[in-house]
Design a protein that fits this description.
Radius of gyration: 15 Å
Number of helices: 3
Shape: globular
Largest sheet: 3 strands, antiparallel
Oligomer: single chain
Low-confidence stretches: none
Distance between the termini: 41 Å
Order of helices and strands: HHEEEH
Amino acid sequence: MPITQEDIQAHYDYHNITQLDDLHTADYRQLVNGHAFFFQDSGGNLRHVLSEEILATNKEQLDVLIEQLREFRNIMNDAPEWMSEK
């Protein structure tokens, strides 16, 4: 069953997410640490919280995912000073 806009809004409401583009890094860190985006199931698989899609089933797959995230990081904008923990 496809994820609807209502599903996304319910997820945001549950985790008190407003907009990510104006969220201070410390608040974003709390969301990440609170498993608002990813969780590990009882079998050890990394899953997306909203879709429950399996993203990685072992450390090598997770390493590949991390490599991809690092590539995305290289082309993303820096956080504005007012949002940054640095």
